[in-house]
Amino acid sequence: MSHRYEIAHRIAALHPERDHLEIYQLSAGLDFPWDYTRALEFALLRTYCVPSISRLLAATGEFRDRPQRRYDDTALLMAEMAAHGYDSPRGKEALRVVNRAHGHYAISNDDMLYVLSTFVYDPIAWLDRFGWRRLHDNERLAAFHYYREVGRRLGVRDIPGGYEQFQSFKQAYEEEHFVHSAANREIGDYTVNLFAAWFPPFLRPAARLGVRGMLDEPMLRAFGFDPAPAWVTRLASTGLRTRAHALRFFPPRRRSVLGVARHNRTYPGYPDGYEPSDLGAPPPPAGLPPEFRRRP
């Protein structure tokens, strides 16, 4: 069992600000890769509870026409930055792709700041509930410092300077901006159906129910989803905690899986033969309303 915690011991010996990239790579790539992936999926779903975000996504038509590709592009571009570092050649190229995609649209800085905050705090909240070990404080702070640096390179302004301040911003933003809208429901339905499509057809109704069972009350209200029966939530939570308990007896992972997606649905075999510049959203559709276009 002592070997199981060797990565945690390495993280404890590092500095959360100076070594934030290394800590994030160890945590997300070795100790909790599956959990970070699931948590970031739900983090993105959470951002669609903000009408100004969901209206833009609905206007582009991308979630209607290419939901899997939009999911895969986002996941892979973020993984490139984490796996290689945001200042590496591949990391810089991934940042350019994201900035180019965002540059077409009128996106408020506060919405960008909120999305960034979900990448920090939603995985932490997930791991507090379902992680096979407790997070070290260095991991929490490193996630903040890592995404603060990513955010700066994405042109996000006014990122709070401390962990608690950024967390308070996130909480206040959700209290003010989580309101129901038709666009929230539209993008929420597309996303839940995307998650369900990863399962065989006969399991998809159960998958949709399971996703609803993992959403908190503010998200359910903002999407206009009916809550899942209480037993669904209990079953999902019990299953995830049972998985976490079993993982304590597994040997430590020796090879990071950050940036490795060989079973990717859009890009089979990724990263072999692909560059970050091959990813990213197409230009805005010709019929995009002017209110969503960024002014030169």
Automatic annotation (TrEMBL):
<protein>
    <submittedName>
        <fullName>Peptidase</fullName>
    </submittedName>
</protein>
<dbReference type="Pfam" id="PF09995">
    <property type="entry name" value="MPAB_Lcp_cat"/>
</dbReference>
<feature type="region of interest" description="Disordered">
    <location>
        <begin position="268"/>
        <end position="296"/>
    </location>
</feature>
<dbReference type="InterPro" id="IPR046366">
    <property type="entry name" value="MPAB"/>
</dbReference>
<feature type="domain" description="ER-bound oxygenase mpaB/mpaB'/Rubber oxygenase catalytic">
    <location>
        <begin position="57"/>
        <end position="238"/>
    </location>
</feature>
<dbReference type="InterPro" id="IPR018713">
    <property type="entry name" value="MPAB/Lcp_cat_dom"/>
</dbReference>
